[in-house]
Amino acid sequence: MAAFQCSLVLSVCMVTSLSSIQMSLAARNLLQTVPAIPSLPKVTLPPLPTMPTLPTMPTIPTLPTMPTLPPLPSTQIPSSLPNPTLPTMPTVPQLTLPPLPATSLPTIPTTIPSIPTIPTTMPTIPFFSPPPSN
Question: Is this model's pTM higher than 0.85 or not?
Fold first, then answer.
């Protein structure tokens, strides 16, 4: 913990010293007086090798044509079948809810109550009268 506090104090001191106006002006002066960096020589890259020719791919054989399918036989549904009947649903008894209580719901106030003011004068404390002088 002590090392953290020490590094924190050191970093704050560093930031404040580097943020001063004189330090900024000194850094600008150094940047303007630095000699120019010599340019590096241009490096020429060797040419890329030529792409080898790829062998030709054999052609894909064509698929045989699909034979035509015979038409589906038409089936007639006999109309003499009886329609299925659904079972009757059991009746659910009707439930009645109990009546609501007669007490009314609390009312929500529509006006905001006023905030009491804080007295700004100092109250005076009555002192005893000074002793009589002879």
Answer: no
- Which two tokens mark 44? 């020429």
Alpha-carbon separation of residue 118 from 121, 123, 126 (angstroms)? 9, 13, 22
Phi and psi at 14, nearest 5°, equal -65, -45
Give the amino acid at 121. Answer: T
- What is the DSSP-derived secondary structure letter of residue 79? T
Give the whole-angstrom CA distance, residue 105 versus residue 61: 86
**Separation CA 30–CA 28 (nearest Å):** 5
Which residues have C-beta within 8 Å of that of residue 23, sequence separation ≥ 6? 17
pLDDT in tens, 76-105: 776 677 778 888 888 888 888 888 777 777
Q: Kindly state the tokens that stand for 119.
A: 């007295």
> What is the residue type of 66?
M
